Amino acid sequence: MQEEKKVIADKIIKIFENNRTFLISGHIHPDGDTVGSELALASWLRKKGKKVDIISTDPIPKEFNFLSGIKRILSKITKNRSYDVGVLLECPDVTRVGSFVNDVNFGKMVNIDHHPEPVKKTLKSDCSLIDPKVSSCCELIYFIMKCASYVPSKKEAVCLYTGIITDTGRFQQANTTPEALETAADLFRLGVDPVQVYRNVYAAKTGANLKLLGSALGTLEIDGNVSYMKITCTMYKKTNSSPMDSEEIINYAGKVAGTKVFGLFREVLGKKKSVKISLRSFDKADVNAVARKYGGGGHFHASGFEVKGAIQEVIKKVLPSLKAAAR
User: Fold this and answer.
1) Residues 6+ positions from 313 with CB-CB distance below 8 Å
2) What pLDDT score was predicted for residue 122?
3) In 10 A of CB 233, how many CB atoms?
4) Strand order of the sheet with strand 73-74?
5) Average pLDDT over residues 243-247
6) Residues of 76-86 as b/e, b for ≥16 C-beta within 10 angstroms?
7) What tens digit of pLDDT does each residue of 46-58 get?
8) At which of 202, 236, 267 does a domain end?
9) Of 74, 100, 108, 312, which has the maximum CB count within 10 A?
């Protein structure tokens, strides 16, 4: 697999070398891995004299504001604009790409991802580097850099490290591999301060964030080896918070002893009777299979999807699938 990856990485490097204008984007609802990989790749390409834009149609979570280049990320782009190359990161299918993709013209498309490929592949590219066994997209970007004999700067290393720690849950999840730890060690040697990254990402919470956490903890339900919480629109309003304040809350449901599958059910602001479900699991519990059943996806131990309906009805509908996955 490693040799095959290197062959594909070399093809991507040639595409980078032989083209001038690039548009980089990740999946909707960006996380640390999406943002970190976008910024590190864009910085590298700009050093090569390339013209690079990054677009994120959804807001960037504020805990990543410390990353170098964050203010250069665009929220919209001119229709019918043309780029030599489009680079999509962490987008296993077109449903994970922002709507901008239909308004822009690309000469070539490159796809770099660590999600399992969907059953029905809907995303076409000229060159794809997809490896579900790696921890993160940032690990893949670092691999491509190494294949190009490029040593990332300290600022680029911080971006890559941020993506790895957020996608591995600070090296506590099942996608923490020897390779992920070795990559993190390399980035540490390049000047990353792990304590400072931790403080920026995890220890800079707002009052609204903590109040929302308190409200969510009050909804905790435990059903055998399944635990879950919910967040309603009313809870957002009462705590003066937003969906971005809820991203880490799911992890608290996984702290219940004996839990194999845990989830967070969130009402979607601005959508009547629509619920976003985030799932996590331990051991051999496959929550990706659950997510795919409902039209979503992700990883074996971390997936998500959205279901129409009132939140209690959705919980009642989905809970049997969670219990089956936890057996």
Assistant:
1) none
2) 58
3) 15
4) 73-74, 51-55, 21-25, 81-89, 104-113, 127-130
5) 90
6) ebeeeeebbbb
7) 999 999 999 998 9
8) 202
9) 100
